[in-house]
Amino acid sequence: MPKKKRKGRSPRRRPNSGRSHLKLASPSPPEAVTPGPVDLPPGVPKPLLRLEFSPQASAEDVERAIRYWNPNPEGGWAEPVSAVGVPSKVAAELLEVCEAYLPHHLCGACASPLRATSRSDAASLAGHDLQQRKNVTFTCPACRRAAEHIRAEEARVAQEQAEAADKARRAEAKAFFEQQAESATTLCRRHRRASELTAEMACVLAAMIDRSHIKPVLPPRNHIPLGWMWEEGGTDNDVLVHLLKERWIRVDSSAPDQALAFDDEDKLQGFYPTLTPFRLTSSAAQTQEDMWAILLSHSKDTRLSQLRHQIHRMEADSLFRYLDGLLQDRYQYPPVPENKVSDLYRLFFSGLEDYTFGQMVCFLWRAADTSAAWKERKQLTDAHASSATVTVLENKLDTARECKMAIPEYDLPRSHNDPPALAAGRALWSQLQERIELLEECVLHENQALPCSNCLGMLYAGGSDAEEIREHYALLGESAIELRPDLATKPQISLPAY
Ligand SMILES: [Zn+2]
Ligand SMILES: [Zn+2]
Predict the structure, then answer these.
(1) What is the pLDDT confidence band of residue 25, given thresholds at 50, 70 and 90?
(2) How far apart are CA 33 and CA 56, in angstroms?
(3) Closest C-alpha to 100, from 39, 33, 17, 32
(4) Which pLDDT does position 135 carry in this prediction?
(5) What is the pLDDT of residues 100-124, one digit of tens each?
(6) What tens digit of pLDDT does each residue of 220-233 get?
(7) Residues 303, 456: contact at Cβ < 8 Å?
């Protein structure tokens, strides 16, 4: 039976009352009075739930809410939901007029009691008996919203900062590339020719000149499987850094963001050479002209022997990779043991002094073959064969030298690759030999081959002597660099500017 217009007393008159209001009987005045809060189960010192009602709640709503929310002290609920209404609708209907709180389960952030929207919600927060303390800290919806708002705000600020940093970095990079392009046009080649160019730099630069004929942008080092010169990144990077410093190459403006290094203030600090695409600072022809001038200037013989040694170092590396592949892929043996590697390289270097690279390939093929046969004959392990290859190679080289045997040249297998600086270094070597053949004697000093030490002496002496040399150099015009590499690399030659 629905009870009409029965209202609870004002909460002021029953402060903190845990007792049910159902005993209230006298009709209240017509104006709406908010029913007071109700603690459940009724009459216990530590209630498990507190209900608070909206002003719209009728006495019938209050009674229904109490029946719905009243816990069974043993756990679960005093009455089944079906006794209070349609099970799928009751909780939603009561939400309109009543809020249920769990007084002993507080929000982790604001410490106010958590609100439950249904019996199952209450059980998920406080367990079947509404008394469990879960390890999880719950947060009330208001605090959750506040926390979400703070998180969103922080994310927005972080995003703004990231965008500003990005913008600053882009501006830095743009200014750098503009300044770099600007300085390329005013590049003082004379200064570059007077700088130090190691044999390593020359081989890599020669490979870059080759590459620039295909495409002006040189690929980042990590796009070249064996590197420009060395498979190990660090050594290659040192060469790149030196070439950059002496302005043989510059960073291409297509450099990706991850190739650029910025400090905390978003100022450009430098580059990761491995990831950076470069380009030649001047044309391939000018680069080659300056490089050749350095290599053919004073101390030419020292430079050429350094270049030759550098080519041998790369060839030794190539031979090592070839032998390793032979042992491991063809014979399925382990690689040459670590303690034999330096002996092996020593044999490569001495062998390359007397034999061509192709002949060395032949020696290696035969050494591996002989070791394999010896291993089978003696019933030894694979590791013995790998190790013996080094001794066998040494014997074969010694015998060949002693008996002056003719050794054929073998080609490397097609699957074998070398870094581009090896082929470029070899080509550079033969180009320089041809160029030396063509170099004429000094026209100022009889019987003086170039580089001419007399001319250098006059240049260093200064005064009218130096002036004479400068005039001679100036008269050669654009061919001066090619014809007089010894003078072209001297800072004392002030004219012309290129
Ligand atoms: Zn809260
Ligand atoms: Zn001279």
Answers:
(1) very low
(2) 8
(3) 39
(4) 67
(5) 999 888 888 888 888 999 999 998 8
(6) 999 999 999 998 76
(7) no
Residues around ion ligand 1, judged by CB within 5 A, are 107, 109-110, 140, 143
72 vs 76: CA distance, rounded Å: 5
Kindly identify the ligand whose nearest atom is closest to the C-alpha of 101.
1
**What is the whole-number distance in angstroms between the Cα of residue 494 and the centre of ligand 2?**
18
- Can you tell me the distance from the alpha carbon of 380 to that of 60, in angstroms, rounded to the nearest whole number? 99
Q: What is the pLDDT of residue 22?
A: 46
Domain boundaries, the chain: 11-139, 301-403, 440-498
The 3-state DSSP class for residue 489 equals: coil
What distance in angstroms lies between residue 112's CA and the mean position of ligand 1's atoms? 6
Ligand 2 centroid distance, CA of 438 (Å): 16
Which ligand is closest in space to the CA of residue 141? Answer: 1
List pLDDT tens digits, range 199-211.
999 999 999 999 9
- Write the DSSP assignment of 297-348 as a string of letters: STTHHHHHHHHHHHHHHHHHHHHHHHHHHIIIIIS-PPPPPHHHHHHHHHHH
